[in-house]
Specification:
With 346 residues, this protein is of the alpha/beta class. The protein has 11 helices and 7 strands. 41% of the residues lie in helices and 12% in strands.
């Protein structure tokens, strides 16, 4: 390599097969066309304060040690004591293109919130419990009602619409969530499947520095509390420290800018489209495979919902037609696409 000073060895980032197949120019172009139409429909092109992105990330006591300064003559890598893996704690993070961020919303594993779990929380932090520590449809609806809506209503006029960009996880597209969002003028916009690594603002510019800040906070805790390990009672304080350091105005603005949302610029993501997808299979087959997989998963979930809650059948139909079985705006009643095949039991 010394003979070629202009080149260097680079370790490529790992990319799953599903992400490689879906990171295609046709998918991205369609996404930006729908996004542009939505921004124009609700007059949000120049309103970064009304464009939000929400996403979840998991944390536990096991952390990655930060780098340390060492002598070049050391033959062995230095070691750092870490804590054992603990139960998962989920953070629901949200911010807008103007740089405003919501306080943390933390989900702990368990049945009842212990007051000791709240130690070190930032002002406005909310807490919920679940059997797994992950979010679910009920918790996300609670988040929308008790955390997102009050924050948004303080920053908009009553008749103004808010755009909420999120991935297509089933907890985000339940009938109750869609009904609530429609009632409160919240426009939910679903990202294309398996494209959050370059289209979702929080994934692109926030969660990486947040994880780094969390690892640094954990390392400081281990250094300042010799002989102790991090437990679930320390997670809130550490996550809130990382949240405060990562969810800054500049980071949020740059994340929405890097994903081409505000200012609206589809070209900025072209460099992130996976060129190796052409080596996997043809573009047409890739799109069909990704769409079929997404449609099958969504159809199965909506079918189960309609069976368990017959009164929600019409609402479920409108959800499916609102996102056209793929991605875009979930608008509820008024969608015209037929969806009888979802409920066909013959």
């Amino acid at each position: 390599m010394r003979r070629w000073p202009r080149i260097r060895l680079v370790r490529p980032a790992a990319l799953s097969m599903s992400r490689a197949k879906c990171s295609q120019e046709e998918v991205v172009d369609s996404y930006f066309k729908k996004l542009e139409a939505t921004l124009k429909k609700y007059s949000l092109e120049m309103r970064p304060d009304l464009i939000y992105n929400v996403h979840e990330s998991g944390f536990n006591a096991e952390h990655k040690p930060v780098k340390v300064v060492g002598c070049r003559s050391f033959r062995h890598h230095p070691q750092a004591i870490t804590s054992p893996r603990s139960a998962l704690t989920t953070l629901i993070a949200c911010g807008n293109a103007a740089g405003d961020s919501l306080p943390p919303f933390l989900i702990f594993k368990g049945k009842r919130v212990n007051s000791d779990l709240r130690k070190g929380a930032l002002p406005g932090t909310k807490f919920e419990m679940s059997d797994s520590g992950w979010s679910n449809s009920d918790i996300f609806l609670t988040y929308m009602k008790t955390h997102f809506l009050p924050f948004v209503d303080e920053r908009r006029k009553a008749e103004e619409h808010v755009l909420l960009i999120c991935d297509g996880h089933k907890s985000h597209i339940t009938p109750d969530v869609i009904d609530f969002a429609r009632e409160k003028n919240i426009v939910i916009f679903i990202l294309p499947a398996h494209t959050s690594h370059f289209l979702q603002p929080l994934d692109v510019g926030l969660f990486s520095p947040m994880k780094s800040a969390y690892n640094a906070a954990c390392s400081r805790f281990m250094r300042d509390h010799v002989g102790l390990v991090i437990t679930g009672y320390n997670i809130c304080e550490l996550v809130c420290q990382a949240h405060r350091m990562a969810m800054t105005v500049s980071n949020l603005k740059s994340s929405f800018r890097a994903t081409g949302i505000i200012p609206f610029s589809p070209q900025v993501t072209k460099k992130d489209i996976c060129s190796c997808s052409d080596l996997v299979t043809s573009t047409k087959n890739n799109n069909n495979a990704a769409s079929d997989a997404r449609n099958a998963t969504t159809a199965e979930y909506l079918r189960e919902t309609s069976v368990k809650q017959p009164e929600k059948k019409l609402q479920v139909s409108t959800i499916w037609s609102g996102c056209n079985g793929d991605f875009g705006v979930l608008e509820g009643p008024g969608c015209k696409q037929a969806t009888s095949d979802i409920f066909d039991t013959n």
